[in-house]
Amino acid sequence: MIVRIWSAKIDPDRADEYENFAYARSLPMFRSHTGFLGCAFLRDGADCTVVTLWESAEDVATLEASARYRETVAAIMAAGFILTASNALAATASL
Length: 95
Known about the structure:
Elements: E1 2-10, H1 15-31, E2 36-44, E3 47-54, H2 57-65, H3 67-79, E4 82-92
Antiparallel strand pairs: 1-3, 1-4, 2-3
Helix pairs in contact: 1-3
């Protein structure tokens, strides 16, 4: 299993918009991809983290190369509530 971690700092005045986007756009996009095992949307004030679980690193690479993923990222950045963002891929994990 692969753990992918995406972190962002959001405009705290627009936190509700961010959360709506996460559940309305990001979650369905993740669910549509092969190898998706689950996710958690975490927020502490302006600090947001999305932890997704994947069957393999190849599944993550396929996600990140997909048109739907790129469109979702472009839409969330264009919305203006993300101030900074970073992406990390954790080592293989077993549960």
